[in-house]
Protein 1
Amino acid sequence: METTTFGRGPMIAITALRVLVGWHFLYEGLSKLTAPAFTAAGYLKQAKGPLAGAFHSLAASPDMLANANLITMWGLTLVGALLILGLFTRLASLAGIAFVLMFYLAAPPWIGYFYAIPTEGSYLIVNKNLVEVAALAVVFFTGSGLYYGLDRIVRGLIGRRPAVPAAA
């Protein structure tokens, strides 16, 4: 997939968006990693979206819950770090989209859904999770890591490798 060509100003804005979303992921991951008793159990148990059954099953199984906790803590941290660095930006964007869509589907702001865990605002269909998915889609499709990020260095290193001769 080729990157879209934008001018300097738009790419600076998209890079800032990438770094800000990356910071959000990194901080969320680190705060969970450093919390002595972090568990996603409460969030999963209160799920009411289309995947509620799967989320409830995860919360009910100690082994699956332990895996979900590790994936959440380390996944958020890794995605955040990669986005901030602009390294494997497209892969990090897709992983971030997957994470945030799972959060959205666990507690969608749809009519008739009420949750025990309070939110910081009033939403209908669109909430911060859906906005973050859209932001990550912009980062994915523009490949901002190739403009301002380590992806540019990686591409340069890969592009300079000598061609492997074909087998005779």
Note: The helical segments are 8-34, 41-45, 52-60, 62-85, 89-106, 128-142, 150-159.
Protein 2
Amino acid sequence: MRLVCVSDTHGFHRRLTIPDGDVFICAGDFSMRAQMKHVIEFVNWVKSLPHPVKIVVAGNHDCYCEGNESFVKEEFFPVVFLNHESFTVNGVTFFGSPYSSAIHDPSDWCYDYPRWGERGERLWNSIRKNLISPDVLITHGPPYGIGDMVLFAHEGEDPHVGDHTLLKVVEDLQPKVHIYGHIHEGYGQYQHSTCSTKFYNVSTCNVDYRPVNPVTIIDLD
């Protein structure tokens, strides 16, 4: 199964050349700060793609989606819009979530939460609690220490902004791949010594919000 993956396109999706594949995945931030018109425009673009299966999660910039998930799901259909939930096709289980730990606190973005605290622990532990063991994990935000380093951290702040609990859940469940974005500087493929999962930060835009990073292709064993 060939996965064709993007994230953090921030409105530049029509500039991209999207390769063929079995499943198209967007890991969030398809807009700069989405209003309904931006959601609908992106929906129409995704629907035009030829991939047999298309999966989208929102990100912290996709503000209209938060609180309007039922409407957004209907607009995207038959594209699969995952809001911290799973979907299985051809025997492969995908779990998609829009959440990310905030780079700075307080935050005025959506689908995020303070880096430390109970909310992040509750969100990511719910995957394990609900007995979901995905083959492909799609989150907008990264796990701690893997493609999550920001270039311009405030003095005294940890430049690694990923989530510790998310990393622990990945270590325990060991999906085949973990796909995410959010931190443009972290684009690339990673392996971690504590698990067999392959990690992919698939951010399309670089730190200057230019859509220069190649679309990521993953051939799932």
Note: The chain is about 20% helix and 25% strand.
Protein 3
Amino acid sequence: MDHTIRVRRWTRPEYDRLIETGFFHEDDDVELIGGQLMVAEPQSSRHAATISLVADALRAAFGSGWYVMVQLPIALGNDSEPEPDVAVVRGTAREHAGAHPALPVLVVEIAQSSIGLDRHHKASLYARAGVPEYWIVDIVDEALEVYRRPEPSPDAVYGSSYADVQRFPRGATVFPLAVSTTPVVVTDLLI
């Protein structure tokens, strides 16, 4: 008897059709990650408040001409449509009305209990897509992890990882790559 577990991989067009046909309900927190449907982490009030702080700080840092998205889909290749806590893309919401943005300059995940998933799976996914900068706001240890320089990495979950990873404590200052003259203070991202 064959006891092999078979996993059905989904494409973004298939996933989008499931959404369009009403297969998922509005309150179903599901993301397409590497061809798999994943249930998103439930949010504590601290997690939710941190998302708002991060979005506010990034809107101030990036200014006009940039769209700071909160928990909205981004199109990453043919098998992934994650909904990161915050993502920054060029342009405005109106400019992206026809299709989900595919080229974020920065993606941010807020980590409370999901730190392992965010460090390994999502970092590899974003690196594979060529996202130049990925941040994890670690609300347990009150720090910001900054991931830069995506590169192929055969040992990583999705075949890519970030070559430059740094951790910044509360009080440190970080300059996002896309607006390298504008500082973001880590304290402003934390409760």
Note: The chain is about 20% helix and 30% strand.
Protein 4
Amino acid sequence: MELTLNRKTRTQVSTIGELNIDGKFECFILEDRDRGLQPTMSLSEINNLKVHGETCIPPGRYEIVISFSDRFNKLLPLLLDVPCFAGIRIHSGNAAKDTEGCLLPGQTKGTDFVGGSRLAFNSLFSKLKAASKTEKVFITIK
């Protein structure tokens, strides 16, 4: 399964994009602020620009696995091998204060806000769980 996140709106607080699954719109995604991280940067360059808990991850292609989150005490999607980041998950939430680099799905969007996050997450998670049983799941963030 291939997911594509096209980042569309950047503010001083958050980044909001559109998530597609195999080319079809699924939901909006809210992330932390975009600080210009690029996959071509060295790890030290990324670390110098990154503000812990307030920076969206670099664009790139990442594998997603379903694993147990000790923090949330349940199974959640996890992005693997994100440079200079650990524990980047997809989970429900509405604003940048609800994430530390993670991706927050929503059915609606506003300025620095996504709504209907639990419903959007549940729909997305069921698709990711089903696909992960038979194939690898990847997300490309642009």
Note: The chain has one domain: 2-141.
